[in-house]
């Protein structure tokens, strides 16, 4: 007799109710087509169970809590942290009203009681990105670098939209992101940061991340670095370009600008065939390896370490803490470290970003929310 496929618990909100935990239902449903992207949360085993330094979960309940950074030091320090991301909306200014109606009827997905078109999904992710920063780092601001032709707005007054000219087409977006970062740093230098009493540090990130702990401690615990990168034990893609921290001093900004200019040059000359995806990460790894080949031998240790690149002090931070992703959490990260700071919802896991915010927004329990991410992050979703 043919063996029946093992049932997998599914989590989804009841259609007629709000997406609060009390109204979520869990059912045992066979997963007949594992390759099909899911339109609801699929719970599986939470990796890292039984390991003392990993988040322990029973269902969606955390049995231990994550370790929050000491925020008292930030309150006694006038230095601030600004998050910078690149975001654009394609052809929003060219669409007719009928085209917008067609958008709403085609390709919509539903999270909780809300349906989203493709553009609305991107905007929801962007707004939740800002929401998490407000929760974890209420003193921080967000700057969104974008194409002047993009038409969108953000809900929170802590976010500022800054238009920077360039080619933001899909095939060129990752290359343009580096150019926009460089232009932004040039603008900051023109503001003469040396005249300011307090230092404004910068963290360049993807917008599909959740900051779940205060990151200001990076600049205090490691006072000598100019820029920081996140690494993982991945031979082909050891560095992730979705998180770059820059010290907001004149020297820090200058050295970060020079570093990114070198990455841009390598990207433009060696990796244009991968311009739509991965080119920036390949260029980043090439530049680091050309200056600090020894660094790659340390990427398996999951510990922060410094390196010097012609006078530029680079701090390497482990992705397991500062750029944790659901699939890798079930794999090489062996669960979720208790001191995790940033969760990165890559690719189709962006649905999980919205679901996670809904849970946190209704419970204010960060550890339980992380259990949801840990238990459901292996599945590919319909985002």
Automatic annotation (TrEMBL):
<feature type="compositionally biased region" description="Low complexity">
    <location>
        <begin position="7"/>
        <end position="21"/>
    </location>
</feature>
<feature type="region of interest" description="Disordered">
    <location>
        <begin position="1"/>
        <end position="40"/>
    </location>
</feature>
<dbReference type="InterPro" id="IPR029044">
    <property type="entry name" value="Nucleotide-diphossugar_trans"/>
</dbReference>
<protein>
    <submittedName>
        <fullName>Uncharacterized protein LOC120280174 isoform X2</fullName>
    </submittedName>
</protein>
């Amino acid at each position: 007799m043919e063996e029946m496929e093992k049932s997998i618990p599914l989590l989804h909100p009841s259609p007629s109710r709000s997406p609060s935990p009390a109204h979520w239902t869990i059912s045992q449903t066979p997963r007949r087509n594992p390759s099909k992207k899911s339109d609801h949360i699929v719970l599986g085993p939470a990796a890292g169970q039984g390991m003392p330094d990993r988040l322990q979960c029973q269902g969606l309940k955390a049995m231990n809590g994550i370790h929050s950074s000491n925020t008292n030091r930030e309150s006694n320090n006038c230095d601030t942290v600004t998050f910078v991301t690149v975001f654009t909306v394609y052809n929003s200014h060219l669409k007719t009203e009928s085209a917008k109606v067609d958008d709403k009827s085609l390709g919509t997905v539903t999270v909780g009681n809300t349906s989203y078109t493709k553009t609305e999904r991107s905007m929801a992710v962007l707004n939740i990105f800002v929401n998490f920063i407000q929760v974890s780092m209420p003193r921080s601001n967000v700057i969104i670098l974008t194409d002047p032709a993009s038409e969108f707005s953000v809900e929170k007054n802590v976010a500022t939209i800054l238009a920077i000219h360039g080619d933001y087409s899909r095939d060129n977006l990752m290359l343009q992101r580096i150019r926009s970062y460089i232009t932004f740093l040039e603008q900051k230098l023109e503001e003469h940061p040396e005249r300011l009493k307090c230092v404004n540090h910068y963290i360049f990130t993807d917008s599909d991340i959740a900051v779940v702990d205060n990151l200001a401690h990076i600049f205090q615990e490691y006072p000598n670095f100019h820029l920081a990168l996140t690494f993982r034990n991945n031979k082909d893609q050891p560095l992730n370009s979705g998180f770059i921290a820059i010290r907001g001093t004149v020297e820090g900004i200058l050295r970060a600008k020079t570093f990114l200019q070198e990455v841009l040059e390598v990207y433009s000359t060696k990796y244009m065939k991968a311009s739509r995806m991965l080119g920036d990460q390949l260029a980043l790894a090439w530049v680091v390896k050309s200056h600090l080949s020894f660094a790659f031998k340390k990427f398996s240790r999951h510990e922060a370490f410094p390196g010097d690149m012609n006078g530029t002090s680079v701090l390497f931070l482990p992705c397991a803490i500062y750029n944790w992703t659901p699939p890798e959490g079930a794999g090489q990260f062996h669960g979720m470290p208790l001191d995790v700071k940033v969760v990165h919802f890559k690719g189709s896991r962006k649905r999980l970003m919205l679901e996670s915010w809904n849970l946190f927004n209704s419970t204010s329990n960060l550890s339980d929310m992380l259990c949801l991410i840990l238990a459901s992050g292996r599945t590919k979703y319909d985002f």
